[in-house]
Amino acid sequence: MSLEVIHRPSATGATGAPLLFVHGSYHGAWCWEEHFLPYFAERGHDCHAVSLRGHGGSSGRDRLHDLTLDDYVADVVEAMSQIDGTPVLVGHSMGGAVAQLVARDHPEAVAGLALLNSVPPAGLGPESLRLIFRHFRDLRALRAFNKGAGAFPTRLFYSDALPEAERAAVAARVQPESDKVNYAVNKRVLAAPSAPPVPLLVLGSTADRVVSARSVQATAKAYGTEPVLLDGVGHLSMLDPRWRAVADRTHAFLKAMAPAQEAPK
């Protein structure tokens, strides 16, 4: 198995915890490159972004629909083994579910957990009716795209404020997702935890069409913490026009988690 791991070294010397970014469904490590990797590298973090197998530049595309969440967990563990120090995992959407499973099974190997627009522990099943009633056409288009037919439904994932040219450029890079993984994230992902295994940030948006504010609140409640809910940010938050608000709140979490290790702004 060959994994693509994009590395952006700290621009100031590694004075903060190393970060490992885990993308969500249909995307790859590339989604973190434009904004998040340089933003956090400039603030003293050694930054890494993994393409889960079957995604981006990683191998496994030929058997994509046989891949499982356990495979993705193994990929993150492998990527962590290549990093000097104990990383904070930053997981987006389905990648947030993977990051939660890694932190549950390997808490000693994870310094912290930032869940951005993440699949909740109970899965996305409770979202199903809302998505069917409000976004039926987009869901139908997404199912067709996953079978290799039609265009990716950008309206479901991206903010209305994202310029059309940028939306098209991002959509040109997306790919189908594993059928098994899509099924798995609609079921319970992990047993309801009583407390976070590591320092935890749960962040979402009131404008997210995929993972609603209610699901973000459910994730926070499961871990006994308070969610951070931003306004006007679409599901693909790291490429949203308001991506900096997401990055700033994540950076504030990192500073509060380990202030002695943080680089000055």
Secondary structure topology:
Blueprint: E1 4-8, E2 19-22, H1 36-41, E3 47-51, H2 69-81, E4 88-92, H3 94-105, E5 112-116, H4 128-146, H5 154-157, H6 164-171, H7 179-184, E6 200-205, H8 213-223, E7 228-230, H9 243-257
Parallel strand pairs: 2-3, 2-4, 4-5, 5-6, 6-7
Antiparallel strand pairs: 1-3
Helix pairs in contact: 2-3
Largest sheet, strands/sense/barrel: 7 strands, mixed
- Let me know the average pLDDT: 93
- The number of distinct structural domains comes to 1
Number of helices: 9
Portion of residues within helices: 25-40%
What is the fourth-level CATH superfamily?
Alpha/Beta hydrolase fold, catalytic domain
- SS elements, strand count: 7
End-to-end distance, in Å? 38 Å
Give the helices and strands as they follow along the chain: EEHEHEHEHHHHEHEH
CATH domain class name? Alpha Beta
Radius of gyration: 17 Å
Briefly note the structural class of the backbone.
alpha/beta
Strand content: 5-15%
Global morphology: globular
The CATH architecture can be named as 3-Layer(aba) Sandwich
CATH topology tier name: Rossmann fold
Low-confidence stretches: 260-265
Order of strands in the sheet with most strands = 1-3-2-4-5-6-7
Descriptive labels:
alpha/beta; AB_hydrolase_fold; Carboxylesterase_BioH; Rossmann fold; 265 residues; hydrolase activity; hydrolase; 9 helices; Alpha/beta hydrolase
Quick recap of the structure?
This protein has helices spanning 36-41, 69-81, 94-105, 128-146, 154-157, 164-171, 179-184, 213-223, 243-257, and strands spanning 4-8, 19-22, 47-51, 88-92, 112-116, 200-205, 228-230. It has 265 residues and is an alpha/beta fold. It has one domain (4-124, 177-261): 3-Layer(aba) Sandwich (Rossmann fold), CATH 3.40.50.1820.
